[in-house]
Backbone:
DNA sequence: GTTTTTAAGTCAGCCTTGTTGACATATCTC
DNA sequence: GAGATATGTCAACAAGGCTGACTTAAAAAC
């Protein structure tokens, strides 16, 4: 299919030589650690969400609405990169159960501005704290410089074209 | 539901005071960066897997079988933490399409020892290299010490009880 | 040597969360 | 007024989780 790699090459000692070894030797350690870390990272909220009969999709929606009050549907779709139909399924539930409120825009009455209700903010905060606890416990064992380094690394992992967008979204500068 | 947090408290300036501020102020930056970084991290393989009509589940199975030749079903289930039925669905396909081979154990003939075929190893390597490229590009922009720091951080994020297990799995010491 | 336990496989059905495609409605823009 | 835009909705499908029940073969226990 893609004969770049002769089959007989052992996975452990690649034959690539010179400067691009770094790019060609699989970084199995980081690949696997990222997998396991992410799994445990999302497992904390899962347990709580179960009690509300919500899933991870609900969590993501609630999280970003809580973080950016007044977010429109289009903006939320852009962040989550899912279809309108997928979003609507979970958003509808969150609205019906009173965790999110949808307000018709004033400038543009076609738009809907989403806001977490007090109940929604409460749940969002509860979940964020759970994840924060894990994040901070991990950082506590390390150099004080680690937090900046880790967030710099995570940012650098993101697609170049999105990086500025994510940076704005994460570190502020929302024009609402 | 859980009245720990009065609703009126603004998310940005929590009223918690003293030493536990770190534990109570949500680390929104890391939470969100982790989300976006992981999304892009798995998106590279997804594009290739599509060509084979495989999904992420296939990738995970192939990855760990490739990394630990001779893995048994029980060991694989323990790593992936999914049910036998879920595993079987994708494993069967990988075997039928010739990416993985299942050999009856010699010491214990009830067991199956899984091995990636040359075709399987080829695909696994191709996918690992894609992810490695992203990982290394991100690291290239940073301090040379960063790699150890990041892997230390990711390891610290993992559930305490599993940490030793994952460490063995990622950094070697397999007794097979 | 029979019984019990274990490893693996399988059938059936369900849930969540993603997808596509088609279409409706209200509102804004030109 | 015509067309574009933002949202909402119906229907059907797919991937990949899950539970529960049951089979088979082989090992272990007795």
Residues:
């Amino acid at each position: 299919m893609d004969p770049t790699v002769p089959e007989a090459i052992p996975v452990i000692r690649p034959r690539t030589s010179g400067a691009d070894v770094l790019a060609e030797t699989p970084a199995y350690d980081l690949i696997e650690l990222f997998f396991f870390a992410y799994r445990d990272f999302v497992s904390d909220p899962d347990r709580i969400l179960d009690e509300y009969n919500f899933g991870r999709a609900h969590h993501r929606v609630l999280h970003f609405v809580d973080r950016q009050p007044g977010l429109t549907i289009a903006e939320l779709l852009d962040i989550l990169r899912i279809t309108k139909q997928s979003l609507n399924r979970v958003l509808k539930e969150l609205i019906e159960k009173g965790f999110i409120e949808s307000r018709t825009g004033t400038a543009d009455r076609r738009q809907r501005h989403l806001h977490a209700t007090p109940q929604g903010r409460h749940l969002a905060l509860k979940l964020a704290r759970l994840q924060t606890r894990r994040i901070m416990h991990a950082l506590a064992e390390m150099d004080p410089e680690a937090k900046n380094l880790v967030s710099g690394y995570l940012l650098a992992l993101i697609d170049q074209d999105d990086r500025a967008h994510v940076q704005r979204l994460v570190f502020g500068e929302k024009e609402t």
